[in-house]
Structure formats: C-alpha cells, structure tokens
Design a protein that fits this description.
With 241 residues, the chain is α+β, with helices and mostly antiparallel strands. It has a single domain, classed as PPM-type phosphatase domain (Phosphatase 2c, domain 1, 4-Layer Sandwich), CATH 3.60.40.10. The protein is built from 6 helices and 11 strands. The strands form 2 sheets. Strands 2, 3, 4, 5, 6 and 9 form a 6-stranded antiparallel beta sheet that branches. It has a 5-stranded antiparallel beta sheet with strand order 1-11-10-7-8. A hairpin with a 2-residue loop joins strand 5 and strand 6. Helix 1 packs antiparallel against helix 2.
C-alpha cells in the first residue's frame, strides 16, 4: 500500500504550551496522535512517552508480529511507561494521554485507540468517524441525551473515561478495516474537532486532494481561526495504488 501524508501541530490561541505529540513513521506504516493531560509539564511528558513507546515497539517488532497484536502490544507498552513514570515521580501524578495510532499493512489498516482523539476516513464524499470517544459526553451522545454537534460545547467535554497511563492496565479499542485507493484518513486531537465542524472538515478534505500537507495546514489554520482554545494536531494520509 502506497500513501502520501502530512502533519501539523499548533499550541492554539489560548494554551501556554503544546501537550500534543504526533508521529509519522512511513517506513513502519505507523501514524499516531497523542493528547496529554495533567497540567504543568506532565501532559507533555505523558504524550511524548506514549508516542515514543508505541513507535519504538512497532519499529522493533514490525517483522516479527502480526499487525493487530503488534499495535495492541505497543499501546499496552505506552500505558505501562506512562503509569510507571508517574509512580516513580509523584510530581507527575495524575498525568495521562489519549492515543490514536494507525498502522497500514498490505491492504488493511489497524487502529489502536484510547481517549477522545479521533480517526476519520473520507471515502468518496463520505466522512466517517472510525473511533468512538471515551468520554462522558460521548456516552451521553450514544444514549441520545446529546446531539453530536453539542459535544464540543458541553461544559464537561474534557472529562474522558479512559486514558493511557492513568491506571496499571487500560482497555484498548482495536479497529481493522480495508483501505482503498484514494481513501483519505485523518488523525486529530480534540483541538481540531472542538473548533471545526465535521462538515467543514469534510469540505477541506474533499476540496484539497493533491497535498496531504496542505490539508493538514488548512485544518490547523481553520481551528485557530475558530479561536484555537486548545492544542491542535492533525495527520492526513492519502492512499494510492
């Protein structure tokens, strides 16, 4: 499977630091976004530890493990490293990170997901969210209490129910699907989706099919134009023959 990709990250207009991390490792077919939490420098440390852990794991095991097992094991290792870091240093207590990692192998994609960062796919003109948020507001949405468009405006939108490193073990969602030529995939932290609607995201992805890097830049610019209340990180991948 061949692909082009682009990525961009921004501190946003309000935050005093960027606690997001991302990895683009085309040689391993691995792309990921991690959004740290914990205040001070702890969130930044958590996302960096998580991103580094899964990237190192996949790089080391890409020729010896089945893709799904390898990705899940890498996410488990990320959880272990973040949890152990705060266990050893109490100044880091309470830190954690989201993780949305996508691995391409042959004609398939694999997604390991924890938290409320997201993976989307644009196929033709249809944008589909491939992950489900692990958050209070997503639970309310799934139970018909909220409309999806209300999620980003809810006062408890930042309350996530599952994260990397908060506990010794974590349940990791694993999604597997078939990739098709001209599919466009988007990985993003919630700094994008809190400020840019899915209709706008779909429009930007659809109208700029030549350069994934241009799309990534445009999405981050649009989130900042919408106020940039949080860190913003995006990775865009387009499949080809």
């Amino acid at each position: 499977m061949q692909f082009q990709y682009g990525s961009q990250t921004s501190q946003g207009k309000v935050r005093i630091s960027n606690e997001d991390s991302c990895v683009s490792n085309p040689d391993a077919g691995l792309f990921l976004v991690a959004d740290g939490m914990g205040g001070h420098a702890a969130g930044e440390i958590a996302s960096q530890l998580a991103a580094r852990a899964i990237n190192e794991w996949v790089t080391a095991h890409q020729n010896s493990e089945a893709p799904a097992d390898m990705l899940q094991a890498g996410a488990t290792e990320a959880n272990h490293r973040v949890f152990e870091a705060q266990r050893k240093d109490r100044s880091l207590a309470g830190m954690g990170s989201t993780l949305t990692a996508m691995l391409f192998r042959d004609s398939k994609y694999y997604i390991a997901h924890v938290g409320d960062s997201r993976a989307y796919r644009l196929r033709g003109d249809e944008l589909e969210q491939l992950t489900r948020d692990h958050s209070l507001v997503w639970h309310l949405y799934e139970n018909g209490v909220l409309e999806k468009t209300e999620i980003s405006r809810h006062p408890q939108k930042n309350l996530i129910t599952r994260s990397i490193g908060s506990h010794p073990e974590v349940e990791i969602d694993l999604e597997i699907g078939e990739g098709l030529p001209e599919d466009v995939y988007l990985l993003c932290s919630d700094g994008l989706t809190d400020g840019v609607t899915e209709e706008e995201i779909s429009s930007i992805l659809s109208a700029n099919r030549t350069s994934p890097q241009k799309i990534a830049d445009l999405l981050v610019d649009r989130a900042n134009e919408a106020g940039g209340p949080d860190n913003i990180t995006v990775i865009v991948i387009r499949l080809s023959q």
